[in-house]
Amino acid sequence: MKSNPTRRHFLKEAGLALAAASLMPKMTLAGGLGLAPDTLLVLGIQLYTVRDDMKSNPQETLHQLAAMGYQHVEHAGYGNRTFYGRYDAVTFKKLLNDLGIDMPSGHTVLHAKYWDTAKNDFTDEWKYTIEDAATVGQQYVISPGLDEAMRRDSDSLKRFLDVFNKCGELCKSHGMKFGYHNHDFEFKEQVGGKRLFDIILQQTDPGLVVQQLDIGNMYLGGARPLDVLAQYPDRFELMHVKDVITAPDGKGEMGDAYETTVLGTGILGTQKIVQKSKAGGKTTQFIIEQESYQGRRPLEDSLKDLIAMKGWGF
Known about the structure:
It is built from twelve helices and 16 strands. It is an alpha/beta fold. The protein has one domain: Divalent-metal-dependent TIM barrel enzymes (TIM Barrel, Alpha-Beta Barrel), CATH 3.20.20.150. The strands form five sheets. The chain has an eight-stranded parallel barrel, surrounded by four helices. A two-stranded antiparallel ribbon has the order 3-4. Strands 6-7 form a two-stranded antiparallel sheet. Strand 6 and strand 7 (121-122) form a beta hairpin. Helix 1 (5-21) runs parallel beside helix 12 (298-311). The protein starts with a helix and ends with a helix.
């Protein structure tokens, strides 16, 4: 693949940033953080951050992320037994391995259509999803969303949350964990007079369904991360690390007033949130995600986000 001055300059900057980051505290065994000695902190990036780049050239995009210093990624691009429409699980794993990247987690929505009520079992399509996740090396299969039809009736919701528990058992049989990732509606909506988010946490077995707390999405839903962390101190193994600002045009990512931005430059107080979560010991997977860029390149902001997290002790 031919290089160009812009790309060479970008990779040079990434190399300098990586060298600087090497002087900062490492992602390492966290005995000094109040965690168990064998607890490994993972710092990664959700590839939705660079979704357009992944669509046009996944291999080059992953190469640039690796050059910055990213060692872990989380996908948001699986369907029809392929990752990003190009790679089967074995091929994608090799691509990641060749770049020195692990993929501990990935996002695939567990839709109601993947549960066969008549057979009381998952469909073959969902079973293949779990098999491919295991093949590519995931430790977590994360469902980022909940069908709207499941959010209208308490009984329907509770029945489907039991499917979540069953998926936890399925993932466990493959050496993985199943998890749920919130957006904003879980905090905005109520079912039977109770906040949807609370129902999800109360109706799922913590031993079978882990939670990935998206601190930006929840802010858009009117909740505050530190409050939720205090309410549920032991439920969040994973976190989507974000910062937010007021959207310049008043139309944010979810139709409200806010959008994401470079970590440490917004109004969320991200540094305090992630350091509290890290010190608490339960959260071990910290995944950077940014969805708006205020006119900058997504890869450019991905580097800035990594530098910010390194500066905060990761």
